Amino acid sequence: MTIVCTPYMTGIVGLASGAINTDGAFYASLHTAAYTPDTVGHTARSHLSNEVTGTPYVAGGKPIPVSVYADYDEEGARVAIDEVRWNAATFTDVRYAVVYQYLGGVASADPLLLYVDFGEDIDPAGTDFVLSWSEGALLVRPAAL
Questions:
Q1: Domain-by-domain residue ranges, the chain?
Q2: SS3 of 143, please?
């Protein structure tokens, strides 16, 4: 299974312009294969669809610790994301995880940062579902698109 992490254009532009507050709250939401990511057209949480359902998942996802900092040598931004876990998960058909900035208001105001395509549907079948990022930090830059 090949897992691919892709930034949304909103994430790249938001990081570059400062519109995404790097000290803000970030969330990870989970989606089925029925959601079709659009890195340009999808700009806010309100564009997301087909969230998974089941215990212990709550609509909107879960808070996730994120650190963002400039990487001038690579001409981009580094995004360091801590692990997030759903214990004894009964939801099924997880295909995507989306990381977005949560601003505390309406979904149309929450900018999308990146999404992860797991390459196949995942069914945790009552085990813990863990998003664990590789050691180090992801590089987000225009060349990644």
A1: 4-140
A2: helix
Whether the CB-CB separation of 3 and 116 falls below 8 Å is answered with yes
Six token digits for residue 77:
């931004």
Do 43 and 112 contact (CB within 8 A), yes or no?
Answer: yes
Half-sphere exposure of 113 (CA within 13 A, CB side): 31
Dmax (CA) for the chain in angstroms is 43
Instruction: For residue 57, give the amino acid letter.
Output: Y
- Say whether the peptide bond before residue 56 is cis (omega within 30 degrees of 0): yes
Q: What is the DSSP letter of 134?
A: P
Alpha carbon distances (Å) from 109 to 67, 101, 134 = 20, 9, 29
H or E, element range at 10: helix 9-17
Distances in whole angstroms, Cα of residue 22 to Cα of each of 42, 47, 95 = 20, 22, 26
Q: Quick one: DSSP state of residue 128?
A: P
Question: Model confidence over 71-125: pLDDT tens digits?
Answer: 666 666 667 778 889 999 999 999 999 999 999 999 999 999 889 999 999 999 9
pTM of the entire predicted model: 0.87
